[in-house]
């Protein structure tokens, strides 16, 4: 159960980030040329691989209780941000994430930028792609390393992320357009719920408390966070006309 | 030095985001749980209650 939950969480969280990275790489490739865009993608991938290779083994040396305390706290702070934004989107207080609109904005900015060539590459296209992939990829690396190391299986978390990467890359190459049909807002809601669930679970264990039923409590925590989130959405939707 | 500042700002916005009070609430909840456990009370229930409170207050601040 926990293993499946771990793979699903890493898959969803990574999928969301890869969809966003794909939008940036496409915008850069179409407007500034594929060579610079793909070079930026490759450079960011190498940088991310180096970060994961350096931090992954280091994390396995940290005592598990300390790791759960720190990672639980970080995931909880990080997850509550995602969840708050997802609840605000679902209740209509915040604009839905729209890959088509982001793609249009990125391409307009890229078309307007001056051409500067460095090392035989269009520098704007390279840095746009590099920064986009690195920043989105750092979130994936953070999730894979924290989920994986705390649960004692970086491999399983990496598997979830790897499936998401292959899926988004294949679909991206086939359609050569932003993946606007991916239910990104629903996925972000699910990721916020999962980050908050894992964060709550691990932070409690890291602080020295024991869940009744140990790992069996994880689905109960998940149900609690889902119920809390849906209740918040329902309440905010009811209040919305008063604000509109 | 500027790069170090930018690095720090990146991680701050990455983990803490735009509501530092929610992050402070998480730290307080973890600290309180650890203190109760040290005092002999297995306070596993405190974190879910705190999460509900932190999320509610954070949403209220956002809508204000």
User: What is the overall pLDDT average of chain A?
Assistant: 84
Largest sheet of chain B: none
Task: Write down how many β-strands of chain B occur, each being a DSSP E stretch of 2 or more residues.
Answer: 0
Helical/strand content category of chain A: mainly alpha
Q: Judging from the principal axes of the Cα atoms, what is the shape of chain A?
A: globular
Tell me the helix content of chain B.
Answer: over 70%
N-to-C CA distance of chain B = 37 Å
Termini Cα gap of chain A:
43 Å
Count of discrete alpha- or pi-helical segments spanning 4 or more residues of chain B: 3
Task: Give the C-alpha Rg of chain B.
Answer: 15 Å
Q: Which percent band covers the strand fraction of chain B? A: under 5%
Main sheet strand line-up of chain A = 1-2
Can you tell me the residue ranges of chain A where pLDDT is under 50 for at least 5 consecutive residues? Answer: none
Write down the domain tally of chain B: 1
Rg estimate of chain A, integer Å: 19 Å
Number of separate helices of chain A: 8
What are the SSEs and their pairings?
The complex is a heterodimer of chains A (244) and B (64).
Chain A: H1 2-32, H2 34-59, H3 64-90, H4 99-112, E1 117-118, E2 121-122, H5 123-150, H6 154-175, H7 184-206, H8 217-243
Antiparallel strand pairs in A: 1-2
Chain B: H1 2-16, H2 20-38, H3 46-63
Helix pairs in contact in B: 2-3
Concise summary:
The complex is a heterodimer of chains A (244) and B (64). With 244 residues, chain A is mainly α.
How would you explain this protein's 3D organization?
The complex is a heterodimer of chains A (244) and B (64). In chain A, a hairpin with a 2-residue loop joins strand 1 and strand 2. Chain A has one domain (2-243). Chain A has 244 residues and is mostly helical. The model of chain A has no long low-confidence stretch (mean pLDDT 84). Chain A has helices at 2-32, 34-59, 64-90, 99-112, 123-150, 154-175, 184-206, 217-243, and strands spanning 117-118, 121-122. In chain A, helix 3 (64-90) runs antiparallel to helix 7 (184-206). Chain A contains eight helices and two strands, in the order H-H-H-H-E-E-H-H-H-H. Chain B has 64 residues and is an all-alpha fold. Chain B has one domain (17-63). Helix content of chain B is 81%, strand content 0%. Chain B has three helices and no strands. The N and C termini of chain B lie far apart (37 Å). The relative contact order of chain B is 0.13. Classes of the chains: A mainly alpha (244), B mainly alpha (64). Chains A and B meet through helix 3, helix 5, helix 7 and helix 8 of A and helix 1, helix 2 and helix 3 of B.
